[in-house]
């Protein structure tokens, strides 16, 4: 009886992990698109590309940061109790 509950919880954790990964991917894509739009506006208003490039990272850098964060999260993962807040 207890084993079934554990399986349900493990299944739910996998679903939530997949949701978080999907949302993270969407966030990275939105950030890239936002930078593209900001750069287009900057071009229209006369801001230099050098200023924009100094403050933004490439899509590859954003993906590398996301992957690094996921790896760190997996290495640092510990069991959490009720009331613990998990920030992804």
Automatic annotation (TrEMBL):
<dbReference type="InterPro" id="IPR055940">
    <property type="entry name" value="DUF7518"/>
</dbReference>
<protein>
    <submittedName>
        <fullName>BZIP transcription factor</fullName>
    </submittedName>
</protein>
<keyword id="KW-0175">Coiled coil</keyword>
<feature type="coiled-coil region">
    <location>
        <begin position="6"/>
        <end position="40"/>
    </location>
</feature>
<feature type="compositionally biased region" description="Polar residues">
    <location>
        <begin position="46"/>
        <end position="57"/>
    </location>
</feature>
<dbReference type="Pfam" id="PF24362">
    <property type="entry name" value="DUF7518"/>
</dbReference>
<feature type="region of interest" description="Disordered">
    <location>
        <begin position="40"/>
        <end position="88"/>
    </location>
</feature>
């Amino acid at each position: 009886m207890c084993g079934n509950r554990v399986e349900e919880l493990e299944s739910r954790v996998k679903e939530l992990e997949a949701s978080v990964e999907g949302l993270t991917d969407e966030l990275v894509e939105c950030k890239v698109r936002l930078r593209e739009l900001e750069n287009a506006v900057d071009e229209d208003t006369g801001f230099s590309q050098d200023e924009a490039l100094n403050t933004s990272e490439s899509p590859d850098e954003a993906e590398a940061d996301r992957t690094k964060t996921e790896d760190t999260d997996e290495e640092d993962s510990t069991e959490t109790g009720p009331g613990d807040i998990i920030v992804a």
